[in-house]
Amino acid sequence: MYSLPKLKYGYHELEPYYDALTVEIHYTKHHQAYIDNLNKLLANAPQDFQSMSLETLLLNLENLPSDIATGVRNNAGGHYCHSLFWQQFSPHPATFTGKIAELVVRDFESKENFVDLFSQKAKALFGSGWVWLVLDVDNHLHIVSTSGHNTPLELGYKPLLVIDMWEHAYYLKYQNRKNEWINAFWNLIDWDFINQVLNKLTCK
Ligand code: MN
């Protein structure tokens, strides 16, 4: 059974960039609903799928019984995407430094260029989805987008950072002003956390 991972901050602590009401609804209603739906679906799935890690489950979607495959894709994906999304934020984010800074400069020339490319991709995403910074098997960085709650795991990438571009993620505060949501997002990214994720992936 999956459960909602604890937040490292209070709902109001990401203000003014991310408002308390959106954080609370997004976390306690939207994210929770994906977890509840996933648990219901898995209750009817073969035992093998019930004991898999979330990541392994998402890499084995094609082996799921057809009556629950789409539901598991959407809801396990929703749980996975939101789990990274919440963890990467901090009210007191660490600065852009360390290994992630080295790799970003190597692969995108500068932080400014990376932020610009990522933000453009987020702006250009049509419909509901996510934009990711990911690592490939050769430890190179890429910016990719996925629709719905599809994850980059299926593409062979490991996620490092992600922005939620579903309207529920920003609409209460930013309405149609997607640009303002994307610009605000960068003020909350804790680069120390991104370095921790990167270290786990590259020290294997
Ligand atoms: Mn969301």
Strand and helix order: HHHHHHEEEHHH
What distance lies between the first and last C-alpha atoms, to the nearest angstrom? 27 Å
The percent of residues in helical segments reads 40-55%
Mean pLDDT comes to: 97
If you compute it from the alpha carbons, what radius of gyration comes out, rounded to the nearest whole angstrom?
A: 17 Å
Question: Would you kindly provide a written description of the structure presented here, covering whatever features stand out?
Answer:
The chain has nine helices and three strands. The protein has helices spanning 20-43, 47-50, 54-58, 66-87, 98-108, 111-124, 171-174, 178-185, 191-202; strands at residues 129-135, 141-147, 158-164. It has a three-stranded antiparallel beta sheet, with helices on both faces. The mean pLDDT is 97. It has 204 residues and is mainly α. Residues 26, 30, 82, 164, 166, 168-169 line the site of manganese (II) ion.
Main attributes of the structure:
mainly alpha, binds manganese (II) ion, three-stranded antiparallel sheet, 204 residues
Please render the helix and strand layout as text.
Layout (H helix, E strand, L loop, with lengths): L19 H24 L3 H4 L3 H5 L7 H22 L10 H11 L2 H14 L4 E7 L5 E7 L10 E7 L6 H4 L3 H8 L5 H12 L2
Antiparallel strand pairs: 1-2, 1-3
Bound molecules: manganese (II) ion (MN).
Summarize the structure.
By secondary structure, the chain is mainly α. It is 51% helix and 10% strand.
